[in-house]
Amino acid sequence: MKPSVVAIKQQDIFKFNARAKSIPGAVNMTVGEPNFNTPDHIKQAAISAIENNKTHYTVPEGDHELLKAVAKYLHDKYDLNYDPETQIVATTGVTEGVFSAFNAILQNGDEVLIPSPSFTIYGPDANFNGASPVYLDTSKTGFKIVPEVLSEVLRTNPRIKILLLNYPSNPTGVSYTGDELEALAAILKEHNIFVISDEIYSELTYNFEHVSFGNILPEQTILLNGLSKSHAMTGWRFGVVCGPAEVISQINKIHELATTSITSITQYAALEAYTNGYDDPIAMKEQYQARRDVLYKGLSKLGFECPDPDGAFYLFLKIPDEYEQDDVKFANELLKEEHLAILPGSFFGIGGEGHLRISYAASMDSIEKCLSKLGNFLKNHQKVTSQI
Fold first, then answer.
1. Mean pLDDT throughout 122-135?
2. CB atoms within 10 A of CB 218
3. Structural domain boundaries, residue 297
4. What does the pLDDT look like over 311-325, one tens digit per residue?
């Protein structure tokens, strides 16, 4: 067996979620999945495709009518300019996009710079390709990379081949302004590295307009995006990889080996989303924002602190100082005693210790129950600091 595969462990977030699902009536705030359904017009487009026998192979990179629609959507939304014939590949979600991009770029001995805490697939993907993840603890800088730290890390780690950016971030919900991205780009353009920018939550940016790194440093950026979060299409498994033509052609080779092509029905659904679904994310975003505000206010009253949630649908909470800081124990006891499932922050890497991630891609009723259960738990576990 390939050692790099044997070394990969099942991800803790999936095991914890499975435990939560096994408890009847548990309030599950772990899942990063919209609780909305795919818009009807998109579902109908898929049904129509089946009824009209559009169920055959497409070209590996994706149907070219779809890729044109993707290019137009990204241009209209984010002022990006990608040639649909040479600079876009449709993938089985962003997960496959990361996998195929890493496979195409990385060699044994390379390094991947990953801001931490981060989503959990990036490090194992690097290891699988004989590369090493270099985790950058961002917990002391507002869970963002800052220019002076980036400059020093790149200077002292010359084998870094990729910087992995994910913003708005899973698990922290923070994002970057255009000025902040420009400051990072000024450093990155001095180095021979790629930026893989995972912007799957771009449509769910609340505090300012999302700026794509593909606009700021196009020659070095491989952009990942898709429909899972913006159009509530997680199960359809649709993503896109965009970037310089010479890189995309190599990524497409890996994609072709892994999948041949993504399903035709998903592509027709995606075509409808990118053509007639420009406004679909708006109503969902408004509801997420309302849920965020209720949850943020309630958690603050309970004594939790978290970074200002700029986007996505997560809050990354610091366990109050007067409680035990073991986040795994906290989450396990919370699940056992209150039947409330939220994820330990340490599952997301260094900088996550003593934190918890809550997803507010859940109903308002679940959010109210979450706050009530957390309040009960804290009341029963508060440490006695003094006694008169």
1. 96
2. 17
3. 3-38+280-378
4. 999 999 999 999 999
